[in-house]
């Protein structure tokens, strides 16, 4: 029985007995863990080049990962923590256009849930009014952040995902402390598909 | 300049000057805050009965609310914290079937972000292995909760939203400390549309 704030029951065996060591991520080319299966333990620059034209379900056994719509870590981003993702709805969030594939992915190496800190700024290049976060924020407006946009971020530690709408809905953008010194000076630096500085929720990534 | 962990800049004026007091929730019958507009400060049992056949965008000015697919607080649930929701994707999350309406809604009165606590149990009726949470959890598997299902909940304080998939994706279910004593003995008690005990992420609601 656990009574610690963040712990949830005794650690479960990550894999069935006799399975040996578990790869961090297992993907299938059909939903609900059907069809052809492939295991990965490092970056995948292009799933088609590894023999997978589509990824329709997967399971993350360890660590936190980020998947991308296009090869080469481009396009929409999907932050993926440990668990089961049986179909597209499980990882897509509520993105405005349907993308039924994940063409590249890599680990999020700097994620550190218990020690994450980020600064946000009203304007680009760290100008204007600023705020500081060390906890998840499902609604920036509820904490007094005027307006629904952010101009720039400075990630001091850990990894964060910021989302377009409250409650972590809409497009999501990964912000990492070990990516170009944690500096995100302009909306264009949040990702190749980022078109708006609209951010209404931000949270820490759980490794 | 704010340096507190959870604060985000100085409190902004919630409404433009000269606007007077702001209603907690404002809805429009077209996306992007167009069309006919209506203000609410309490429960709405049926938006059609109030002259709204559809709700396509809204803005939450204060408090936390929960919206429902059907009248009478039935069907899919949408937890709505303060902010702007310009279109269906902003509040729907990644629910498995498209629902372009919100037919009833009410405030979440027991939400208390800084003081929320919940117990979760492997089996229904509070049986089996248990865990305790006082912080957001984007991945129950990452914290050692074996399997992807929860049997029952006991909400000690605050309000929580549990989601089907990691990262708060998929169907969401509101769990309140002031609703039948915070006891959710079986998946059927999480909501009229709840069909699965699959829960892989849980977080506190921000008032």
TrEMBL record, chains A, B:
What role is this protein assigned?
Crystallins are the dominant structural components of the vertebrate eye lens.
Q: What biological processes does GO assign it?
A: lens development in camera-type eye; visual perception
List all membrane-crossing ranges.
none
Report the InterPro entries cross-referenced here.
Answer: Beta/Gamma-Crystallin, Beta/gamma_crystallin, G_crystallin-like
The entry sums up its family as follows: Belongs to the beta/gamma-crystallin family.
Would the keyword Repeat turn up in this protein's UniProt record?
yes
Tell me which residues make up the Beta/gamma crystallin 'Greek key' domain: 23-62, 63-109, 116-157
Q: Which SMART domains match?
A: XTALbg
Q: What is this protein called?
A: Beta-crystallin A4
Q: Which organism is it from?
A: Pavo cristatus
- Pfam families assigned to the protein according to its UniProt record, in alphabetical order: Crystall
Keywords annotated in UniProt:
Eye lens protein, Repeat
Its assembly, as annotated, is: Homo/heterodimer, or complexes of higher-order. The structure of beta-crystallin oligomers seems to be stabilized through interactions between the N-terminal arms.
**Molecular-function annotations in GO:** structural constituent of eye lens
Q: Which Gene3D superfamilies match?
A: Crystallins
Secretion signal span: none
